[in-house]
């Protein structure tokens, strides 16, 4: 049974769940970023998501800037979800979760391995309630191995997965700590993999009737992004090093300053593009220079090459530099801030920046849906609701609790 949109945050009347995952119901026992990010993606693609929060709410409700007493991030982080409160440490909460599980296709959680089992919600208990349930677990190190019980957040996964080492400036250029990406990339990448795993497991279930378990580790999710770093080490013993704003394997591809101080990325790392750039710089002879004739040679002399390009870019204001690069059809862009993104005509045209009506915050900007699947609405069906906003609707519609049962759960402190 699909629930009616919650009244505090409905933004798109008439945009009932469509898209490829319409008809699937997901139960989220998640907190912070990774599992909630996974379920947001599933909800964006049409799934009905029931999010369980502790009575005080998910901690992310308090993260970031504040507006009208709330965190604007929550509006996006919990969009397309029905949010209910349950104190999972209370004995009465266990049966409520199992009653919800019986109505769901998948469960997504990111507690430490074994934590749900301690609450009486281990895999065997969940499967007894719903034999074909898909269970997706996101943790720092995975559900087994010697480190399974160690505490971790996304930043730990980023470090163990090798990304924090590579997102730094080149060796010898700074004594500052390795640079963070700037967002919770470890959690988000793990969330993407969890969402993919859920979809894959549901597809298999459609074919075989069997449920399954999805095991996603933060550290492994990041490690999987490292391109050729592992085979290069295995074959050559080479440890890939950070390269600042450049790419270690291709040149020229870096950020260069304009005369008015704007950083402009220029990616001219193919032979035709490099010839175009050299000509645009007024130095076509550089294309035939032995130091720069071929990608391997350019990478070997990248500091000299970047110095020559910088010497040219600082003679032009950013607008003139971008116009010149656009005219030569060389891939480029200034480094965008979120204000640049919000004003970008391409982002606006494709609905990647859109204004929606949030029941708690009023008009607010949301990103569009990624990936685009034909027929899936690009606008959210609802924004992140208030704490416990959907308690009565969800528990009344799914397990079928009556008002007296819901009131008793409140009295017991379960809700």
Write a brief structural summary:
It comes from Teichococcus wenyumeiae. This protein is of the alpha/beta class.
- Which percent range fits the helix content? 25-40%
The CATH class of the largest domain, by name, is Alpha Beta
Strand content: 5-15%
Order of helices and strands: EHEHEHEHHEHHHEHHEEHHHHEHHEEHH
The CATH level-2 architecture of the largest domain is identified as: 3-Layer(aba) Sandwich
**How much is the average pLDDT?**
94
Please report the distance between the alpha carbons of the first and last residues.
22 Å
Could you list the spans in which at least 5 consecutive residues all have pLDDT below 50?
1-15
Shape annotation: elongated
Pairing-aware structural class of the strands and helices? alpha/beta
Give a count of the beta strands, DSSP E runs of length 2 or more. Answer: 11
Q: Which fold name corresponds to the CATH topology of the largest domain?
A: Rossmann fold
* Assembly status: single chain
What's the gyration radius in Å? 25 Å
Q: Count of helical segments? A: 18
| Major β-sheet profile | 6 strands, parallel
* The CATH H-level homologous superfamily of the largest domain: Crotonobetainyl-coa:carnitine coa-transferase, domain 1
Instruction: Provide the spatial order of strands within the biggest beta sheet.
Output: 3-2-1-4-5-6
Number of domains: 2
Account of the 3D structure:
This protein folds into 2 domains: 262 residues, Rossmann fold, CATH 3.40.50; 88 residues, formyl-coa transferase, domain 3 (2-Layer Sandwich). It is built from 18 helices and 11 strands. The strands form 3 sheets. A 6-stranded parallel sheet has the order 3-2-1-4-5-6, with helices on both faces. A 3-stranded antiparallel sheet has the order 7-8-9, with helices on one face. A two-stranded antiparallel ribbon has the order 10-11. Helix 1 packs across helix 8 and helix 6 crosses helix 8. It holds the Pfam family CoA_transf_3. Keywords: Transferase. It comes from Teichococcus wenyumeiae. This is CoA transferase.
